[in-house]
Write a structure and sequence with these properties.
410 residues, Dymeclin, two-stranded antiparallel ribbon, mainly alpha, two-stranded parallel ribbon
Length: 410
Amino acid sequence: MGANTSQVSDLCENQSLRTLIGTESISENDPFWNQLISFTFISPTSSQLFIWQAHNALFMIRCLLKVFISEMTEEELHQQFSYQERAPGSCDTGREDLLEELMCNLVHLVVEVPLLDITYSILFEAVTTMLVLLSYQLFHKEILRDGLIYQYLMKERCVSLTSRLVKTLLYNFIRQEKCPPPATHIFDQQSDGGGLLYGLASGVASGLWSVFTLGGASSKPGLEQEQNPLPLSNQSLLLLLVLANLTDGPNDCPNPYRQAVTCFKNTQDTSSIPTEQHHTFQINFNSLYTALCEQQRSDQATLLLYTLLHQNTNMRNYMLSRTDMENLVVPILEILYHVEDRNSHHVYMALIILLILTEDDTFNRSIHEVVLKNITWYSERQLTEISLGSLLILVVIRTIQYNMTRTRVS
């Protein structure tokens, strides 16, 4: 760390880090802080100086938080952000809650900073740091309803940005932006230095996803990894799912992030938004539909699809009105066909999605009118031509047979 280029192998001997974890307090105006966040894993240009240092500061905060959260209670973590050196005999004057400031500023950063090549890494750090702060649930069996981090997210400062935050996370998922070339090795899992950043981030995200799926999603490690990972898109989707699945607040106050996910509308919908619907917004349904069709290899994307079909009436009606439903249904059927390679939660969600879709009579009629040719992933026999409805029936029967013969589920 410091003004020189750093290597991961040198961190244990770094003098700046030794000073940071030392016993002596450091004034907030000490030049040490500017030196500490001036390390480089990549060389910044002069125009990138502020974003470079902000990224470095967030990266260090995230690494420290990951350790603190695994070892401390929320109250003890709060004390780390509340320490204030006072002269002997002086009284304790009121001071701001720095942990709350951190969470609120992270939300502001995500919604206010546009996604550009130069801002990609800092947005990734902001989203992942929020995931780290929400990872306290990993260390508790019971549902955390009164935690500090949860309370911060439910306060007006964050709640007022609910619709913008959910919309931004959805657009991050839709855009599927790859890491820009100058910073690619930051997230490259194969590089010696870059693996540290991506590894820390993916570790927390995988842990949270394991909580959602009760550990089932980890049964096939590495199955969903792409050759060129999309770190911001993946982390944004995970954060969106975590926020949407937070418990409701006290006095039956609904989760505002879930409300935003379940009531947003299409940008082409010109009807007025009902006044009783809070935190709603408009988004391009065509772009979202396309992204959902393309990303069904990921069980996180399948969970988002299930959530929207089950809880967002606007999105469900839009999907059922599409004339190209095969683009969505075929990837779901491919999940079921490769049932032995998928975790049980992914298969279960795929089946529930088909159940929701087949409740619609128009869908049931239309899938038998769509003719598919050359289904290459169906290897048991050559399907040169088959209707979408027949393929659905064939794959579902095969899934039932697999469960009965392999897992003894009747």
